[in-house]
Each structure stands twice: as structure tokens, then as C-alpha cells.
Write a structure and sequence with these properties.
Blueprint: H1 2-25, H2 32-54, H3 60-77, H4 82-96, H5 99-102, H6 114-132, H7 135-154, H8 167-181, H9 189-200, H10 222-235, H11 237-251, E1 252-255, E2 258-261, E3 279-280, E4 283-284, H12 285-297, H13 301-315, E5 318-319, E6 324-325, H14 332-343, H15 359-384
Antiparallel strand pairs: 1-2, 3-4, 5-6
Helix pairs in contact: 1-13, 1-15, 2-3, 2-14, 3-4, 3-6, 3-14, 4-6, 6-7, 6-8, 7-8, 7-9, 8-10, 10-11, 10-12, 12-13, 12-14
Length: 400
Amino acid sequence: MMRKILAAALALVSLLSLVHLGRATLTGLRGPDVVASQLSWLAGKAPSAASEMQALFPEGEFFTWALTGLAAGNLARSGHDPRSHLPLLERAIAETGNPVVADRFGANDLLPHGAFYHGWRLLLLVDRAALTGDATHLAEVSSEARAIAAALDENPLPSSYPGAAWPCDVVVALAAAHRADRLVEVPGLADVTKRWFDAMEAHRDPDNGLLVHQRGTSRARGASQSLIQVFLPDIDPDRAAHEWRIYKQAFLAPTLGLVGVREHAHGIDAPGDVDSGPLINGVSASASAVTLAAARRHGDVELATVLDREADLLGLPLPTGSGTAFAFGLLPVGDAFVAWARSVPVGDALSDPAPQPWWWLMWLTALLPGAAGGALWFGRRKSRGEPPPPRSAGLPAKEL
């Protein structure tokens, strides 16, 4: 009986693994319905979970709301149920504007709450103004965009936290100003942008020419470069296309049968930190998730499809009463990152090939428990059909 139970359990494990693997790997890029399901869950979860995420990450609460809002804005602007997604965007704007959230970034030079805060906030404001066309919303976009442009004109690397600056945060802020410029005029933005790129030549990795991770360092890193690659097309599409290929050569890494993004460029072995999160064989999960957004933005459909499939494979998305949650709903900020990445519009398709995970090995591994269960089940049945061995190899008892 125990053999039957164990055999059945192994067969069930194999069946569930095959179903999960098929759902994760046999479909292409996830569409708006999948994102909408994730947002449905986040809309109910974020109010209680955002503060919990703040206890785990320096920008946990802000990112939970901002990325949820941007994903909702992307769906609404694409025409996917704007009546339900616009209110979620409005909620994200209100929550990120909470003084308790804003004050965590300190009192910074030029921009009151720093380049990080103002850049991501402007992205949210631009989406809302584009959807509503409201004069008050447009005026808020204009004021914020002009403030960012003026700050960059005075200092190309304004702080995100007091005394600390990251070029990637400035790229997001400058990209947000360029998006704003499509709605309202931002005077002098082209000249500010040119001067900014000129100033950034002193802040590039000598090995690959990409922007360094943080002011005062000399290396580019995956955590920041993945974000830069999402937003650089808003600022300079030609430069973005050139740097995208350099980024992939420097950071994209097939590893442990999967495809991920290294935190440190090939040839550099260094630990992770609060920006990268834990590294597995040098690969950063957060940089890999954000690279899904970058691949979509650049039209790198083959790479985006690989990363999208891996997100479902590793994230174990499960339906809940209100939508779909990853990792049993234990890390909502991760759900927000994936939902936002999947909502980014796909650019003009590139023909670039992408490394592929070892799908064949995953299918084989999923079949192994079932094969072992079958061997247990049928091996037992066969042994019952065989005659028992003789009790003794000697003479029959009556002849002794």
C-alpha cells in the first residue's frame, strides 16, 4: 500500500510540474489580460502590503505604488479598461505624494525630495494628464518637468538621497521630462539634454562606455543599467539602440540552465548589495525583471519572451480570489515590478537572437518523478506474479 501511495504522489508531482512548465513556457509574451489580473490583486493588496515592503527595501513602499500605478497607466493608455485602471493610477499618485513617503528621501539639493522621487512621480503625472487632459493635471506636469530641467541645467547629477546620486535616477527623471514635453512645452529641454550627455562622459565605465552605477564609482551595474535601458529611448533613441546591444553583451548571462542578467559585467566577480538584492551565480533577479521591460521597449521580442516565460516559471503565479499573485503573494513589490515590466509597450521588432534556457532539461526533470512512480507501481505488480523461491536448496525433508 505504501508503495502505491508513494508512486501516486510521484506521478502527481510530475503532472503538476508538467502543467506548470507548459503554462510557463508554451506561450509567448503576456498580454494586457495577464497584467490586468496581476493589477487586480495588487489593487487589493497594496494598501496593506506597501508599508511591509518598506521594511524590506529602501524604496519598497514607493515602488509598490509607483510601479502599480505605471502599469495601470500603461493599460489605460493602450485602451484596456481605462475606467478601472485610471482610478488605480490616481490612487498611486496620491499614495506616492504622501508626505510620509516623500520625506523618506530627505531634503535634497535642487529637487526637494531628490531626483529619484521626482522622476518617478512625473512619470505617473504624465500618464494621468495624457488620459484626462485636465488643465490642472497638465499644469502640474509642466511645473514638475520644468523643475527637473532647471535642476539638471544647474547640476547634471542631483542627489536622490542627501549626498548620494545615481545616474539611472537622472535618466528616469530626464525621460519623464521628455514624455512631459509631448504634452506641454518644456522650454530649453533639448539644450539641457545635450549638456547632460556631455557632462556624463566623465561618468562612464571605461570597459564598456555605459553609465556608472553611482556617483563616485567607476563601474556600470545591472541594477541601474536595466532601468537606464528602459528609459533611454525616451531621450535619445539612436543612442539607446547602440547602448542596448552593449548592455546585452556585458550583462546578459545564460546560467544554471536559465537566462538572467548579471549585476556585475562579465569578468567582474563581486557581491550583491541593497541595490541588487541577493545574487545567484552573479545574476540579479531584480535586474532580470527590469530587463524584461527594457527588452519590450527595444522591440527585442525573443529576449523579452524568454524573460517573460522565466518570470512565470520561477514566480509560480497562482490565481487568488482577486487576481494573480506571484510567490504565494509574499513579495508584492516583486509583483508590481513584473506587472509594470509586462505592461511596457513593445517597440519596433528587432531581429536579434537571444540565448535560450535549457527547456529540454526542464521537461526531462519534470518527467522523472512520474517515471520513478511508474517503476514503483509496475515493479510491485510484476513481483506479485512470480512464484516464491524454494525454502531450501537441499534435499526434501522426507529424504533426510
